[in-house]
Design a protein that fits this description.
The chain is an alpha/beta fold and 298 residues long. 43% of the residues lie in helices and 22% in strands. Helix 1 packs parallel to helix 4 (67-81) and helix 6 runs parallel beside helix 7 (140-148).
């Protein structure tokens, strides 16, 4: 073990061989992750910090890293020990065939949300829909739809200007064509700018705040509360706002697709039915959990 001086202190790191850094990452993270997870993280950090892919590492495990890359790995490992999600450490998350920038101002996209995107893509691949993503965060849903449905016109709103900065960055980097608006879904002064749409999609806050204690530290301590939690007194409040927007904005036959808490599929369906929507149904995710509700404007 050697040390590098930085900001007046000494950062303990191994020698600068890639193999030594790999072992260092595995050892430091072993109390928190399984052996397979630490290996996967080690591969990711080597590529992120030093541009060394998995194949390149195995071809030459003794290649040398410069000081900057070594320090980046050290600080990343320390952040992971504090339960910071890996995606926030490297500021990247994979979603629907693309890599998106993510920050603590945006949720980390989940595979379950990819299933909702895929459902919309299949339903609109032969059409030219106007789509609105409500609460876009990193923009992963809207941008993925824009890229997969080049004939669609995609809009996205979010109440967080910081989240929109990330979404706009992703939109530019991935050469998508999403139109972003800084807006609160509960207000109505932005609706005229968009007009009528064929599809509303949203992954709104749906975890009752009382469940925060049961979440992993990675989620509870680091992901944005505003994008995660709904009030215990009315856990489906955001679906009420979405259903109201749909009555104003959806064309006849237009669709709503929303991600849900597995406990609230039936109440969300009943809400949409009470608002006059038809063909409401619950769709289970790949793990068999109720995950998506779809509803249609008559």
């Amino acid at each position: 073990m050697t040390g590098i001086r930085q900001f007046g202190g000494e950062v303990p790191i191994p020698n600068n061989k890639a193999s030594s850094l790999f072992i260092f990452i595995e050892k430091e993270l072993s109390p928190l992750y399984t052996s397979s997870e630490t290996r996967q993280i080690a591969y990711i950090l080597l590529e992120w910090a030093a541009g060394i892919s998995r194949n390149a590492y195995h071809k030459n495990p003794d290649q040398r890293l410069n000081t900057s890359a070594m320090l980046a790995i050290h600080h990343a490992t320390h952040a992971l020990q504090q339960h910071t999600p890996l995606q926030y450490v490297i500021e990247l998350a994979d979603f629907y065939h693309h890599s998106f920038r993510v920050t603590p101002d945006t949720l980390i996209p989940r595979p379950e949300t990819e299933e909702m995107v895929d459902l919309i893509v299949k339903n609109y691949k032969h059409h030219q829909p106007v789509i609105l993503d409500i609460g876009t965060g990193s923009g992963c849903i809207a941008i993925s739809l824009s890229l997969a449905l080049p004939n669609a016109k995609v809009w996205a709103i979010d109440i967080s200007e910081k989240a929109l900065e990330v979404a706009r960055f992703n939109n530019h980097t991935l050469n998508a064509h999403v139109n972003f608006i800084h807006a609160d879904m509960k207000d109505k002064n932005w609706i005229e700018q968009i007009g009528k749409v064929d599809c509303l999609v949203s992954n709104p806050p749906y975890i009752p705040f009382s469940e925060k204690i049961s979440l992993s530290q990675q989620v509870a301590l680091h992901e944005p509360e505003m994008a995660l939690f709904s009030p215990d007194s009315d856990p489906i409040i955001f679906y009420r706002h979405i259903s109201e927007l749909g009555k104003i904005m959806l064309n006849f036959g237009g669709m709503i697709y929303v991600e849900i808490h597995e406990k609230y599929g039936t109440p969300v369906c009943e809400l949409f039915r009470s608002m006059g929507y038809i063909h409401t149904s619950i769709i289970k995710d790949i793990n068999g959990k109720e995950r998506i509700v779809q509803a249609q404007m008559p």
